[in-house]
Amino acid sequence: MEGKNPTIKEIARRLKVSVSTVSRAMHNNTRIGLGTRNKVHELAKELGYEPNTQAIFFKQKRTFIIGVVLPYIREDFFSAAISGIESAAMLNNYTILFGQSYDDIETEKRVVGVMRKQRVDGLIISLSKNTNKYDHLTAFEKNDIPVVYFDRVPVLQNVNKVYCDMERGTSEMVEWLFAKDLRRIALINGPAKLAASRDRLQGYIKGIAKQKLKVDMQLVEETDFSKESTNAVMKKFLEMKHPPQAIISFNDYVHMDAVQYATQHKVKVNKEIIFASYANLPITAYTKHPPIISLEQYPFKQGERAMEMMMKIINEKVSHQPPQASHYVEEVPATIMVH
Amino acid sequence: MEGKNPTIKEIARRLKVSVSTVSRAMHNNTRIGLGTRNKVHELAKELGYEPNTQAIFFKQKRTFIIGVVLPYIREDFFSAAISGIESAAMLNNYTILFGQSYDDIETEKRVVGVMRKQRVDGLIISLSKNTNKYDHLTAFEKNDIPVVYFDRVPVLQNVNKVYCDMERGTSEMVEWLFAKDLRRIALINGPAKLAASRDRLQGYIKGIAKQKLKVDMQLVEETDFSKESTNAVMKKFLEMKHPPQAIISFNDYVHMDAVQYATQHKVKVNKEIIFASYANLPITAYTKHPPIISLEQYPFKQGERAMEMMMKIINEKVSHQPPQASHYVEEVPATIMVH
DNA sequence: TTGTAGGCGTTATCAT
DNA sequence: ATGATAACGCCTACAA
Q: Which residues are registered as beta bridge partners of A125?
């Protein structure tokens, strides 16, 4: 129980050799006397010597730590994503510094600032909903620390990012529903200012147009994610002369509220009205009325890809290779899951 | 876009003063010429100087990083817990290194090893289900790095830990059900080798005994968490001459499977049979039949407390105070939530 | 008020 | 085959 970790210096002192000898002995590499080599290894083991990575990293100006900032870890999407990030990081002997923004830009700035202070080798971030300035992030690039965005990516050009094309995915959902002879397809969208909402709306419109249907904006409503708000939308839909035959909800939470409302109003869920959603809660499978189709966004894979992209960038940097591109972009295709 | 971060040395060179002057100027403290002080600050800002915490921490032999190892972040319980840990860490200017064991002891060892290499200032861990040896953890204490266990704590004595007394909680659940005039109370427990199962069983037995009921081991069955296994248990219960009046499930996943089975077999859930569970999925509120009561384990609070305990230990260490105790133990009371 | 020097643990570059 | 030394960035006695 000797608290202090021994150093090569200590070993050198005891063995009456120089520190450089010990250092070399530990690395086996260079030609060194077999006798001393063994003695060093022996004592090292006996003392429980472990190289001080802090000192090494300090010298190398690296930390082998990647900062990861997410809006909200309790959303299954993000906990799956960080698992993918961690998985890829482990394979590369990297470690993850964890932080949440709670969808608040000020918190995001604070967290990101801490990570800068900790001198992470790179930052992987999924932006908070109201992040509209990027100074705290471009600051990283100024210090030559790579940033990879994923899922919630910025509108900026020239950034590294991994994301799912929700526009295309939504369009494909519409297509799928159309193929089931459903014509009046409604969308309960999120607040217009969210990028996620814009993507869904664009995809919806494209999908409808592609089937040569007329886009009926009566069938597109917004919820602020509160139950009351979603209920109000549902009320409007159900009271229509021709209620929608299918309803696409912004996410599974909205979906569940919508289904609950529908059930309470005697709608035969997934019979009279088909429900679709975006997969973020594995738990919906346990609910009475899971969405008939949902759009899988592969959070684990997105995380993995983001980390792999980061590794690529870092490796180019440390090996002084010219980068293949000024920035990297990868799209992970969203796919429709039928339940 | 000058990649390199300036150092005090650089500032000193430009200002033709010594590094110590710059260092002092940056810290304001010591008596220093107002003129030079301002000049230093000015140039520092201009150059975008930021102290290299890596260098400072290296010197101080601290990292201000706490390693956190969880079985599985996608369980809501653990993502809530890490949020609590992060919250308390932020308040203390500490940062979190993240790792999962996936309930596998070998993975746990690897992850824990990486954290040791990273020279974290402390480790907070919730053990994997099959961790029965603790060498990889006691190694920390040998290096005088504090370890705080939470929720899934080891059987060892003399460890710092934060946990919820599930035995008592279970006993109280039985008590509550008894007060509702329910006498035949069943328990779908987890595998016997899990500590969590033992706690629940002990609590169950205590609770039953306390009401002066006879413990009927017919009413206690085990599931391996698969749907089939849970169904088999339910089958047995429902085919009894006197089926249970209440069923306590090991967790919400088991609960949902059990309820699904019951529904399919025409049982009026929460009417004919009352269902109780352990709160780990906020989503159950959305399901058709949430458990009537559930035992809340306050994961966020447990995480917070674990981190606060860690801070206390570390602060005692760095200030060379004699510790108040050789180790700390804190119990977070579980409480019954009625739905 | 300011400068000098040593040290934290390691590696790399010279010497010997 | 081994040793001495400088360097990474910062801090802090101690000196001037």
A: A69, A149
Taking the stretch 56-85 of protein chain A, residues with Cβ within 7 Å of any atom in nucleic acid chain C are: 56, 58-59
- Beta-carbon contacts of A84 under 8 Å, excluding residues fewer than 6 positions away, are A299, A300, A301, A302, A303, A304, A305, A306, A307
Q: For the CA atoms of chain A, what is the radius of gyration? A: 27
Asked if residue B274 belongs to a domain, the reply is: yes
Query: Do the Cβ atoms of B3 and A144 come within 8 Å?
Result: yes
For the CA atoms of B186, B190, B196, B199, the dihedral, rounded to the nearest 10 degrees, stands at 30
Q: Are residues B198 and B288 in the same domain?
A: yes
Query: pLDDT for B225-244, tens place per residue?
Result: 999 999 999 999 999 999 99
The gap between B16 CA and C1 C1' (Å) is 15
Question: Is B129 inside any structural domain?
Answer: yes
Residue A34 binned pLDDT confidence (cut-offs 50, 70, 90): confident
Burial class (CB in 10 A: 0-12, 13-18, 19+), A10: middle
Residues 49-68 of B with CB under 8 A from A: 50, 52-55, 57-58, 61, 63-65, 68
Say what the pLDDT of residue B173 is.
97
Q: How confident is the model at residue B292 (pLDDT cuts 50, 70, 90)?
A: very high
Residue A201 sits in the same domain as residue A151: no
On whether residue A338 sits in a domain, the answer given is no
- Of A88, A84, A86, residue with least CA distance to A98: A86
Q: Would strands B335-338 and B293-296 be described as parallel, antiparallel, or unpaired?
A: antiparallel
CATH number of the domain enclosing B200: 3.40.50.2300
Determine the pLDDT at residue B2: 46
Asked if residue A339 is part of any domain, the answer here is no
Record the pTM: 0.94
B95 close to A (CB below 8 A)? yes
Q: Which of A53, A111, A143 sits opposite B5 (nearest CB)?
A: A143
Same-domain pairing of A313 and A255: no
Structural domain count, chain B? 3
